[in-house]
Amino acid sequence: MWQLTPLRIAGIYACVGTIWILASDRVLAALVASPGTLTLLQTLKGWLYVVVTSVLVYVLVRASVTQIRGAQVARADSDQRLRIIQSEVAQLERVALVGETASILNHELKTPLSTILLNLRLIERDLQPRGDAQKDNIDRLRMLRGEVQRINSLLEGQLGPLRVGSENLDDLVNVDRVARDAMELLQHQARESGTDLHLSLSGPLRPAVGNAALVLHALLNLMTNALQVMPDGGRLDVEVASGDGIVVLRVRDTGPGIPADQRERIFEPFVTTKPKGTGLGLAIAGRLVRKMGGRIEAISEPDRGACFEIHLPAQTAAPSSGDRPPGTSVRP
Predict the structure, then answer these.
(1) Which of 6, 106, 279, 331 minimizes the number of CB atoms within 10 Å of its CB?
(2) Are residue 162 and residue 186 in the same domain, yes or no?
């Protein structure tokens, strides 16, 4: 399509100006008899041509500069969009690799886990309680069986949060109970590393809308990550609160914090601050939370620890009168 560019305008003006100068000289010579008046009019005509030409040149230069700047801005925007697209493609490639890894783990681990689970059930059935020691052994077997069942459940759907599973995401989740379960499961690991666990419940607490197993999985990933960044011990606080239509789970540690250059990418697959970390724990936690319609964020300052927050939609109905009173604090 033909466009009126500054260069074409300059060409048209040059042609029209030349024709005007030649024609106007003849017209003036025919109409004006006095040589002095003719000279004056020709001088004025020349100055008028100079002024018009100068204004036109100024306008054309400004238009050209504007076009150049617009092209530079468009190119910069295009380059930025390209970088964003490349980043998203790289993210999708990492996500695909996580999904492939999850499928391999699912295939390779389910068979031995099923064998372990079957044998634990047989041992538990054959053992008869004979004194406190035997009863303790049976309790340990039940705990082991529960852990194997949980791992098997993760492999069946929760290890691969990138694909849409069959989990019901509209359940009412008692988040404080989930937090207690997570504290109990990691209590021994925390004790071995010299880390103090603290659970704080600010009520009245409303149930969250989601899936209890997915919430537990995400919370365990955050707490495990916190324990791993504090190999020499420290303090790990888990807080549960609700308000403004959300339920908030906070996991706060006294570790080294998150480097500034990794805060924006901390929930991406394979991004880790630990020398032996896989970079999958936080990524899976983030995807599980988003799968339930929630959001997750990290707050950190160098050498002042990190705080991870899970925000889940809360039940809209008001809590019952039997809910826990505000300010309940538990230390396992």
Answers:
(1) 331
(2) no
